[in-house]
Amino acid sequence: MKQIAIFASGAGSNAEKIIDHFTAPLPDEKRSVRVALIVSNNPEAGVLKIAKANNIPVQIIEKEKFFRGNAYVDELRSADINFIVLAGFLWKIPSALIKAFPEKIINIHPALLPKYGGKGMYGQHVHEAVIANKEKESGITIHYVDELYDHGKILFQAQCPVYETDSAAILANRIHVLEHKHYSTVIEKILSD
Question: Is residue 12 within 8 Å of residue 87, measured between CB atoms?
């Protein structure tokens, strides 16, 4: 059984879709992947309610230990975590965690990397930049996490159009559709290879 930890800082819509995907019944088969832990740096995050509703343990993390301590590696190992999924997690992943989970941490970014990535490029900031530059398309990128923001090896991309009349909120909704459609299936494919 592969055990994943989802790291999230906010409402948790992607986390919820991933949990739903891996708890949905399978005909004549047992699941080989389980969401075993929700990790958040925000004690008020909506994702914590989702964790509680699904009886998933929660680990609240604090900055000092995450960046200058052991990055919660011991806690993740004691929970038998094999894989980490970032789903709207707003802190950079420290090298201690990357070294402990090499090519076992993935992120979803709301743009077509390498464009519109890097420090400060998250959420509405990304969509506003895409619209300001009059891009004709945007999309999602699922990638391995390394020591740089939005830099690791790209695993999957999906595109959507950007219309001249789009606001950042409208584009964000279109991007969310792609995230919810693809993230769980890409995770499943990676963990079954």
Answer: yes
Torsion of CA 33, 39, 44, 49, to 10 degrees: 20
Contact 37, 70 (CB under 8 A): no
**Which pLDDT score is estimated for 28?**
63
- CB burial class (10 A; 0-12, 13-18, 19+) of residue 25? exposed
Is 182 designated active site?
no
Place of tokens 């200058």: 68
Q: Walk me through the domains of the chain, giving residue ranges and CATH numbers.
A: 1-102 (3.40.50.170), 107-193 (3.40.50.170)
User: Where do runs of H (alpha helix) occur along 79-149?
Assistant: 95-100, 123-132
Helix (H) or strand (E) holding 189: helix 168-192
* Tens-place pLDDT, residues 135-191: 999 999 999 999 888 899 999 999 999 999 999 999 999 999 999 999 999 999 999
Taking each helix axis from N to C end, the angle separating 168-192 and 13-23, rounded to the nearest 10 degrees, works out to: 30
User: Each residue of 55-96: pLDDT tens digit?
Assistant: 999 999 999 999 999 999 999 999 999 999 999 998 999 999
Contact 126, 114 (CB under 8 A): no
Identified catalytic residue from 109, 127, 143, 182: 109
